[in-house]
Design goal:
There is one protein chain. The protein has 98 residues and is mainly alpha-helical. It has 4 helices and no strands. The N and C termini lie far apart (43 Å). The model has no long low-confidence stretch (mean pLDDT 83).
Length: 98
């Protein structure tokens, strides 16, 4: 039976994936009802969940209090986001560009 590798990168990806899904639903409702931009809503959520407010997002704790681990997690996540964005950009191209 395969086992799930519980590493910092997998935990962060799963947490951020769930957050992005919920944020997408909530931000759409706020954007349509109050005429706010997604960037402003993301900034407000980031400030609320940051270590200075609710302390729910603690990047140094996820990286085991190591700046080197935090840098590698940030690099891997940036690569993941860039890959997803490139695939979506390719999918959304009009057919006349192909």
């Amino acid at each position: 039976m395969p086992t799930l590798l519980v590493s910092d990168f997998n935990i962060v990806c799963a947490t951020l994936g769930g957050f992005i899904t919920l944020f997408g639903l909530v931000s759409y409702l706020f954007k349509e009802r109050y005429y706010l931009s997604e960037a402003l809503i993301a900034l407000v959520f980031g400030v609320i969940f940051s270590p200075h407010a609710l302390n729910w997002i603690r990047p140094l704790d996820y990286a085991l209090h190591s700046e080197e681990n935090l840098g590698s997690i940030t690099l891997y996540f940036a690569r993941l986001v860039l890959g997803v964005q490139l695939v979506l950009a390719g999918i959304q191209l009009p057919s006349k560009y192909l």
